[in-house]
Amino acid sequence: MRSSVEIVFLGLFTFGCLSEVKFNAEDAELTTPEITQKYGYSTETHHIHTEDGYILELHRIRASPSFGRADPSNLPVLLMHGLMGSSADWILIGPEDSLPYLLSDRGHDVWLGNTRGNRYSRNHSRLSTEEREFWDFSFHELGLYDLPAMVDHVLEQTGARRLHYIAHSQGTSMFFVLNALRPEYAGKFQLMQALAPAAFVTHLKHPFLRFLVEHQAVATFVLESLGVVEVKPFPNDWTRLVDALCPDFLNRALCLDAMHSLTGSKYPHLSVNGYRMVWHHVPAGCSVKQWAHFGQLVTSGHFRPYDYGPERNRARYAGQSAPPDYDLARVTVPVVIYYGLADELTHPADVELLAEKLPNLVALNRLPNATFNHMDFLLASNAKDALYDSIISNVEQA
């Protein structure tokens, strides 16, 4: 039985101000590899082990129906999703507009990552998802263990010395953690392109998330009392309910009002079929500790590891009562940043602070559309023209 507290958390990172989503409604029922293969893209599934025992699933788009097999002279491209996301996040707007398809159509070897705990990476060499220990991780572990395992696997499989890395939200947090803690990995990245980067999040504007952060001690106590350690994907019964309640234009208006009440955002351009695609694929699952860690960043104003309290911190962080900041001066990989003016989660002021601290910032790109929000980086119908063409150009010129 899903608790009411769990349901409150579900989907809050899912939506922004969305433009109309275009896709085939049948795709809502398929997995990422099933969707990409349906549109003629040769796709492989890879399973890799992290240093601490998690088993991750990667999806590789190796050939395009228009280009054929990827050009081996091109460096591979690794795409990483955000909090509660999965590899499916990158293909929700269909084969004509989604970034992985566009890259593959130009001869690039595309890899879609999945972090521990989402629907594709729920295995461990010794732990079960029913054990609390399985869910004892935040984005810190994703950066320290998951990302290097993926990078090493991609380079081993392709024979390349470096790769391109493109990430959304938490996917950028992982990158900054890895390069701050293990700077030897800098040589394995050709270029990092950060979409709505999440490092400093002090200016969080989302009203409900801000409320939860301000009452985090109570929220944490309630969740721990209920034994809630993970945020699960929506169950099939829930997605069937959405399908039943939002089948036509009349009910679409009611569903929009309900979503507005829950998330505090309006979605005037979200299509009827868009409900099915998003609700079936997002959220894809994560740990509650990931949420708590981001909440700590909001209140502290720092980008740093998880805060366990003064006593436990001293045991973990060499006698320090507070966690040490991640040293962003060690992030020497060239970085290109894209951010939106209407992003309530990664606010422009926080993105600009991050940019100031990066020693090898190539470009800081503000999206010109004043309504561009957090999930528009993945779901806006004009994402190709507004964003993806620029990203692809950077890949091909770096």
TrEMBL record:
<dbReference type="InterPro" id="IPR029058">
    <property type="entry name" value="AB_hydrolase_fold"/>
</dbReference>
<dbReference type="GO" id="GO:0016042">
    <property type="term" value="P:lipid catabolic process"/>
</dbReference>
<protein>
    <recommendedName>
        <fullName>Lipase</fullName>
    </recommendedName>
</protein>
<keyword id="KW-0443">Lipid metabolism</keyword>
<keyword id="KW-0442">Lipid degradation</keyword>
<comment type="similarity">
    <text>Belongs to the AB hydrolase superfamily. Lipase family.</text>
</comment>
<dbReference type="GO" id="GO:0016788">
    <property type="term" value="F:hydrolase activity, acting on ester bonds"/>
</dbReference>
<feature type="active site" description="Charge relay system">
    <location>
        <position position="374"/>
    </location>
</feature>
<feature type="signal peptide">
    <location>
        <begin position="1"/>
        <end position="19"/>
    </location>
</feature>
<feature type="active site" description="Charge relay system">
    <location>
        <position position="343"/>
    </location>
</feature>
<keyword id="KW-0378">Hydrolase</keyword>
<keyword id="KW-0325">Glycoprotein</keyword>
<feature type="active site" description="Nucleophile">
    <location>
        <position position="169"/>
    </location>
</feature>
<feature type="domain" description="Partial AB-hydrolase lipase">
    <location>
        <begin position="33"/>
        <end position="92"/>
    </location>
</feature>
<dbReference type="InterPro" id="IPR006693">
    <property type="entry name" value="AB_hydrolase_lipase"/>
</dbReference>
<keyword id="KW-0732">Signal</keyword>
<dbReference type="Pfam" id="PF04083">
    <property type="entry name" value="Abhydro_lipase"/>
</dbReference>
<dbReference type="InterPro" id="IPR025483">
    <property type="entry name" value="Lipase_euk"/>
</dbReference>
